[in-house]
Structures are given as structure tokens and as C-alpha cells.
Design a protein that fits this description.
46% of the residues are buried. Helix content is 24%, strand content 34%.
Length: 326
């Protein structure tokens, strides 16, 4: 059943083994994990001097899917900025899930906030949501060395107009996600008829990315586990320049669900730009919610019909490639 996508399983198995890792020259200055020169793993950690705590906790329970997607979109958009730069206040909603917005802002007297603080703040907000198992209207106060530096807030829409596009980009414009049904017949035998073709704000031309999915129905996962992995992957990707290429597999394991994992393995010998991995993560989030998927997921990502990578979200033991011994 996994014949079409089993190469990703072999790649993951290799990079997880200390004796089976081929030595690759990095395509860029991507930090590498010692002993695994083709694996970017364990990054995306939040500096211990940074923290976020709930300053205001409302009583309103917001729509779960809209809240999860708003935060996904925030992390996705932030990954397109310079990690060491600054950004003005902005608010986010996701296409098709517009009842919840999430915004970040600086403190009075300082409108802008470091991008890394916004990414870490979003990651902290995700930790609270995953702990609560619900999305509530709340304000998260962000601190650096115990000094207040900004806020992240979840609330019901509409988004304040004063925040729309305030950082120089249209932060509230919906991404054009179009379900591509024409490919279903060709790949139906492998249950890869689940396709998304998207125009991404991180792509600055007319290229289209298509994501093809295979649901691993013998690996049940909760919505919280799936989104914890999407958040972890986007948090990792956000550390790197969006146009920087990597040939390294990007592997994340969320702290709150340590038995689950998300790996993305670039296909071309020239590597793949980090912004394309971020696009793969958000398209996977849309797929999971739109199709009600509560299982592990294999994915193939194509840019203008050329494969640029494979991905896998799973729980527990890694799925075995077809034909492998029990």
C-alpha cells in the first residue's frame, strides 16, 4: 500500500541510524546535528530567556479548527521573514476558517517586535492550546529576561483593520488553496487522490505547489498530535532564511507529544528552499482539517509538477517500507 512513497521511509530509517548515514556536503550553512550530517534535527528550541504566560484568560471557547489554522498561518507567514529582523503588529486568519484571529503586537512605545519573539510567542501559544485541548480567547504576555516585549492574542474575528498589512505585507490576505481533483483517478489505487494545489505568499512568481497525500490508517493520531508536529516543523523552518536551500532532512519531535514526529526529506540534489517546506506544512494542515484526517500522513510535494520532497507525520514505531521483514 505504501509502494509509491516508501523511499521516504528508507531515508528516515537511514538518518535515524548512526551507522547508515551517508556523508553529504551541506548545500548551505544549515546547522547540522553532530553525527548526522544530512539531518537537521532538534533545532527550533526557544531560548530559555524567552517566556510567555497567560495574562488574560477569557471565558469564550473559540472554534478549535479556526484557532489551530490561524496559528498555523501565523507561523507559516513568519517563516518568510528574517529570523533576526523585526516586524510590525499583524493579525492572521486562515482561508475557510475565519471565525478566529491570532495577532501579535509589541508594547506601548515600541510598535515593532523581533521576528524571533513572534515565532517563539506563537510556539508558546500553541503549547497552551495543546495543553488545554481547546482554543480560548486569551492574551499571552511575552517576556525576554523578565522584561515585557509583546503580546499574542486569540479572539473571535473580525481582525482590527488597523493591523491588516501593518508590517508591509498583507498579513490577512487568504491563501488561494484550490483542491485539485483531476489527479485523483490517476493515483486512486494508492489512495493518493488527496491533492492540494496552492498559490503561496512565500512564492513570488506564478509557480504552483501540489501536495499529494497518503493516509496511514493503521497509525491513529489525534488532531492535537498532528498539529503539534506541524507547529514544531514551522518553528524549526522559521529559524532559516526562506530562500536558503537545504539537502538535509528536517526532523522535529514536539516536546508535548514525544512519541510523534514530522520529517521532510528534500528530493533534488540541489536541495529545497526552506519556504517550500513551510508551504508543505501549511498545506498539510489544511488537508488534515478539510478531510477530517486523524491518522499518520505521508506526502509528496511537487513544484510545477517536479517533486521537491517527501514528508511523513507518524506516531510510535516508524512505518515499515513494503517488503521489509517483520
Amino acid at each position: 500500500m505504501l509502494n509509491v512513497l516508501f523511499p521516504v521511509l528508507l531515508v528516515v530509517a537511514a538518518i535515524r541510524s548512526a551507522t547508515a548515514v551517508p556523508v553529504l556536503e551541506p548545500a548551505s550553512t544549515t546547522p547540522l546535528v553532530a553525527g548526522n550530517p544530512n539531518l537537521t534535527e532538534g533545532l527550533g528550541a526557544i531560548d530559555p530567556r524567552f517566556n510567555g504566560h497567560v495574562a488574560v484568560l477569557g471565558r469564550q471557547i473559540l472554534d478549535t479548527d479556526a484557532g489551530l489554522m490561524a496559528l498555523t498561518k501565523m507561523l507559516h507567514r513568519l517563516s518568510g521573514y528574517d529570523f533576526n529582523g523585526e516586524i510590525g503588529p499583524a493579525a492572521y486568519v486562515a482561508a475557510g476558517y475565519t471565525s478566529v484571529s491570532v495577532e501579535f503586537r509589541g508594547v506601548p512605545g515600541r510598535r515593532d517586535i523581533p521576528v524571533k519573539y513572534a515565532i517563539w510567542g506563537a510556539s508558546k501559544a500553541g503549547q497552551y492550546i495543546l495543553h488545554w485541548r481547546e482554543v480560548r480567547n486569551h492574551v499571552l504576555a511575552l517576556t525576554w529576561d523578565r522584561t515585557l516585549v509583546g503580546y499574542v492574542e486569540f479572539k473571535a474575528t473580525p481582525i482590527p483593520l488597523s493591523l491588516a498589512g501593518s508590517s508591509g505585507k498583507d498579513q490577512t490576505q487568504d491563501v488561494d488553496y484550490v483542491w485539485n481533483t483531476q489527479l485523483q483517478a490517476a493515483v486512486a489505487t494508492h489512495n493518493l487522490g488527496n491533492n492540494i494545489t496552492l498559490g503561496s505568499p512565500l512564492l513570488d512568481d506564478d509557480r504552483k505547489m501540489t501536495s499529494r497525500y497518503h493516509v496511514i490508517d493503521d497509525i491513529p493520531m489525534t488532531k492535537w498530535e498532528l498539529f503539534a508536529n506541524i507547529y514544531a516543523q514551522l518553528g524549526l523552518i522559521g529559524e532559516f532564511p526562506p530562500r536558503q536551500r537545504t539537502r538535509n532532512a528536517c526532523l522535529t519531535t514536539p516536546d508535548n507529544f514525544p512519541e510523534t514526529h514530522f520529517v521532510f526529506t528534500p528530493t533534488p540534489a540541489t536541495g529545497v528552499e526552506f519556504r517550500h517546506i513551510a508551504d508543505a506544512a501549511i498545506s498539510t494542515a489544511f488537508f488534515i482539517l478539510n478531510r477530517g484526517i486523524l491518522f499518520g500522513v505521508l506526502m509528496r510535494i511537487l513544484l510545477d509538477e517536479e517533486e521537491i520532497g517527501k514528508g511523513l507525520i507518524w506516531k510510535g514505531d516508524m512505518p515499515r517500507p513494503p517488503g521489509s521483514e517483520e
